[in-house]
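Dear colleague,

Thank you for sharing your sequence with our group. We've completed the structure prediction you requested, and as agreed, I am returning the results in plain text so they can be pasted directly into your records. Please verify that the sequence below matches your submission; if there's any discrepancy, let me know and we will rerun it promptly.
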Amino acid sequence: IVAFTLAVTRGDTSGLLPLLDSFGTVPPMMADLAAVVLSDAGRRDDAMAIWATREPIGDDFFRSLKLTARALAVVRLGAVSEAAALDAALGAFTGQLGGAVTGAFAFPPVDALRGDLAQLLGHPALAAERYADAALVTSRCGSPAWIATIADRQRALADQQA
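Please find the predicted structure tokens below.
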């Protein structure tokens, strides 16, 4: 998960494909992460097949981490049917880095992913609000990579709306 977290921060998880392939069989609890890697590597059919084995996300200590990983997969796979319910579940973690409550791992700001989900659902104004919230989170955490990523998303959204 540490390598995945770093790759997500860099914006491309495809470099993890050899590691993923070395697993042979991907356990269902890793389906979201595997789907992201396969999608980034251009293997969408494989990503969809593995993602179909995903498990429901329970209400446990790792919930925000799992929801964030699920959101990364939903956005990459364009799984509109999952987006609204996932967005609602992620609402409990707004203003936070995904998974940060575990004290061990942190993904991008939850609000950034909620912005991505809003875009997927066709709500650009809501996406803009969420990216603005994510920008506040990234400025507090001081991650240059996430600050740049959020700024890029805001610019891309503004360009789409122009």
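Summary note from our side: The chain has a mean pLDDT of 92.

Kind regards,
the structure core
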